[in-house]
Write a structure and sequence with these properties.
Blueprint (H helix, E strand, L loop, with lengths): L3 H24 L2 H11 L6 E2 L2 E2 H15 L9 H16 L6 H25 L7 H23 L31 H20 L4 H21 L2 H17 L1 H30 L5 H7 L15 H8 L34 H31 L7 H20 L11 H23 L19
Helix pairs in contact: 1-3, 2-3, 2-5, 2-6, 3-5, 4-5, 4-13, 5-15, 6-7, 6-8, 7-8, 7-9, 7-14, 8-10, 9-10, 9-14, 12-13, 13-14, 13-15, 14-15
């Protein structure tokens, strides 16, 4: 267990960081503060039992936003409050000795919803339609740089910054799978897949040739890094997502452009796979694909040891669950806590939610994401919807669907992946803002005007 001095140092570090960031966020324009918040999310400067830098950033930027007296809109508030309330109910029915551990999880989840609202607000502060998604493009560039450094240093190594051992990058997995800044090869792969559809959306609306070439190069790099993660499931999810994209955008693309995009994408993916496989130490994706086996129940070999024990524990408390947090701080390093059963992560979002917050928690979580996806689906076809935002809502349908499919093979909501939560829920805020633009767009005044250009609207 941590000593009292260690706990005090962690709390002091968080407090100092919060004060410094709050002063900066208060001094900066809201647009700059939220933009910086998004770009910094993948990189954890602190990670303690009481939270990470993502949590601190989210709370201080949102608090600074409130104190500036700007109008605050909180879309999906009812659904989010219902979900958080159930998490608190589940937590309250656990042994009191576990409250701090579960409370950290609930606070972190709340911070992710703060980012959802901040991104919704930020979408309305940019004058140019493409600016909001460009913030996520800049984030992607930072992730690419981080991953390339890991490719260079090789498997099993950790890059120390400035010669200070406490300031370092995530250790690269020894088995030759790229982990990236999210500390998980699966989650980094998932991030890269979702980023591809944002890049593709932005590509069609780019006004300059040089930026289109930059986006194409970024997409190719993401392909290579996806291969380097060695994620079999994510590779297949991307192929499926690409087919869904071609179907949803079939009218905009047309037959010939769709065929060209599919063939070109296949060629690029094959070429980057050959390069990564033959010229880096991270080329075991296709070997892992060939080695995949399933048992009689259809469970893949990599999940056979974790799904049955989790399901057995779920049946012990199917409604209330076992509390919001699946595993406690440093349990994976041998530290044990009273009144809490240690289980291996199930690598399945739905088993994870059933175990932690029971069937009602799972339903409320799916209700929230399903509501966002339905709103995107409904708004993308509105007659007066601006083309850019209609297509962004359509991209939102793909991203949310792929997130839910990914949940079959990895639980994105474990606490040590909270930086990814902030990215994902921030992106959901952008999609909801796009839906708002579609729903409030006025009909064009004249035929020669650009179809569906909305009047000034605060998202």
């Amino acid at each position: 267990m941590l000593s009292d001095a260690s706990i005090q140092n962690q709390l002091t570090t968080i407090l100092i960081l919060a004060i410094v960031l709050f002063v900066l966020a208060s001094a900066l324009p809201q647009k700059a503060a939220t933009t910086a918040l998004l770009i910094l999310f993948p990189y954890q400067t602190i990670d303690t039992r009481f939270g990470s830098s993502s949590v601190v950033l989210a709370f201080v930027v949102f608090l600074a936003f409130l104190l500036k007296g700007d109008r605050v809109r909180l879309p999906m508030l009812g659904r989010i409050l219902f979900l958080l309330l159930w998490y608190l109910v589940s937590m309250s029915l656990m042994p009191p000795s576990t409250y701090v551990q579960h409370g950290v999880y609930v606070m972190t989840l709340f911070s992710a919803f703060l980012v959802f609202w901040l991104c919704y607000d930020l979408s309305g502060r940019f004058e140019k339609d493409t600016s909001m998604v460009n913030v996520f493009i800049v984030m992607n560039v930072g992730v690419v740089v981080y991953c390339v450094i890991q490719l260079v240093i090789g498997p099993g190594e950790r890059f120390v910054l400035f010669g200070i051992e406490e300031i370092n990058m995530t250790r690269v997995r020894a088995d030759g799978r790229l982990t990236g800044p999210f500390e998980s090869a699966e989650i980094t792969a998932q991030y890269l897949v979702l980023a591809q559809f944002l890049i593709l959306h932005q590509f069609w609306y780019s006004e300059t040739g040089w930026f289109r070439r930059f986006l194409a190069g970024l997409a190719v790099t993401n392909f290579g890094l996806l291969i380097a993660t060695g994620s079999r499931g994510e590779f297949l999810v991307f192929i499926g997502g690409a087919l869904i994209y071609l179907w949803l955008f079939r009218r905009q693309l047309g037959v010939m452009r769709a065929i060209s995009l599919a063939v070109g994408g296949a060629i690029v993916l094959t070429a980057t796979a050959l390069i990564v496989t033959n010229f880096t130490q991270f080329g075991n994706l296709f070997d892992r694909l060939g080695e995949t086996e399933f048992d009689e129940q259809g469970i893949p070999d990599t999940r056979q040891a974790v799904w049955p024990p989790t399901w057995k524990a779920i049946k012990e408390s199917p409604m209330i669950g076992h509390g919001p947090r699946f595993r406690f701080f440093q349990e994976g390093r041998g530290v044990r806590y009273e009144d809490h059963e240690y289980l291996a992560y199930p690598h399945n979002l739905y088993l994870f939610l059933l175990y932690t917050v029971g069937a009602p928690g799972l339903m409320l979580f799916l209700w929230l994401l399903g509501s966002i996806m339905y709103r995107c689906w409904r708004s993308m076809s509105l007659p007066n919807a601006p083309p850019y935002y209609a297509d962004l809502a359509k991209t939102g349908v793909i991203v949310l669907l792929l997130f839910l499919i990914d949940g079959i093979k990895i639980e994105q909501m474990r606490l040590n992946l909270s930086d990814y939560w902030h990215f994902f829920f921030g992106l959901c805020g952008v999609f909801v803002a796009a839906c708002y633009r579609n729903e409030t767009a006025e009909p064009p005044v004249a035929e020669e005007e650009e179809a569906g250009r909305p009047a000034e609207a605060t998202a």
